[in-house]
């Protein structure tokens, strides 16, 4: 069985904010160094590294996971691979690492992810023939579709925002509900920081010690004054969607016997995993079935779940998922979510795992779900079991 032994992340910086001068491989190195130092682990015992990154078009190219651990000063004997499942990349990294442990291929696996959306480059496609006479256009790799194959159906390649406006129409989720959900995210994130909840989960980077985008004074009314972004008469605004961000996260996974090497007990067990895919434009709703499959894998039901960390790509898709699960919304993102904290694509999954494990411990809940929607119509989910309550009645 695979266990979570430790987790950390950087504060998440705004686009062009305090982390803008930090290369993604350096951000990766920061959390890797912090996690190794935090645990006192002999890094030479790490048998593999699985790292997530969605872009991989600039300074994060050429296997940024390997680059990060080398920059962190880990022994050159520690291997690494970098995986790309867009927004779910670091959650995918943890799933892959946990499978290696479950099958006995490894006892100790470092996982995590990184994204600098600020430093994501513009790209220029090569012409099919040399020296074309016309002009070429630089394409931003920060977010969304780029260099789209013209054989792709147009309905699949709409913007992420337009896709979620379609979701809003499908489920009739009002602008007011979306703004209220977003305001709650900011208020809970601010309260969590003030209470000290994140102090042991976050590694400062330079002068940045807290997530940069949290607005504690957000209300439904103030967010209601923002203009729609994707449709003139739409409901999605800059206030009820996740922003562009920079950051990194790391999660140390191990088998039960790895505790002796690490020198500490695990904080959670990975009890179930789920993956699901549907039409690309419906990606925001994909966590519904991914989480259901993760619960089935764990052998439990929603009634057993005491906490949920759902990545808030958009308020509307988050609400659609919570409604479909028919769960108490008060157990969802109790320490704030991505609308407030931020969503540096390749790093968000690791954030969900670290936060969920800590919430389960604080709330004395046995089971929790971490779920994330993924562009181009996918989602991933994990079930964590609180090791302090492992094996008890549920």
Which descriptors apply to this entry?
alpha+beta, 31% helix, Peroxisomal Thiolase, Chain A, domain 1, two-stranded antiparallel ribbon, 12 strands, 394 residues, ten-stranded mixed β-sheet, single chain
Tell me what the structure shows.
By secondary structure, the protein is an alpha+beta fold. It has a domain at 3-118 and 242-385: Peroxisomal Thiolase, Chain A, domain 1 (3-Layer(aba) Sandwich), CATH 3.40.47.10. It has helices spanning 24-39, 64-71, 89-102, 160-171, 175-195, 220-224, 259-262, 287-298, 315-325, 338-341, 348-363; strands spanning 3-9, 13-14, 48-52, 81-83, 108-116, 122-123, 139-140, 245-254, 268-277, 305-310, 367-374, 378-386. The strands form two sheets. Strands 1, 2, 3, 4, 5, 8, 9, 10, 11 and 12 form a ten-stranded mixed beta sheet that branches. It has a two-stranded antiparallel sheet with strand order 6-7. The two termini are 19 Å apart. The model has no long low-confidence stretch (mean pLDDT 96).
Indicate the topology.
Blueprint: E1 3-9, E2 13-14, H1 24-39, E3 48-52, H2 64-71, E4 81-83, H3 89-102, E5 108-116, E6 122-123, E7 139-140, H4 160-171, H5 175-195, H6 220-224, E8 245-254, H7 259-262, E9 268-277, H8 287-298, E10 305-310, H9 315-325, H10 338-341, H11 348-363, E11 367-374, E12 378-386
Helix pairs in contact: 1-2, 3-11
Describe this structure in a few short sentences:
With 394 residues, the chain is of the alpha+beta class. It has 11 helices and 12 strands. It has a domain at 3-118 and 242-385: Thiolase/Chalcone synthase (Peroxisomal Thiolase, Chain A, domain 1, 3-Layer(aba) Sandwich).
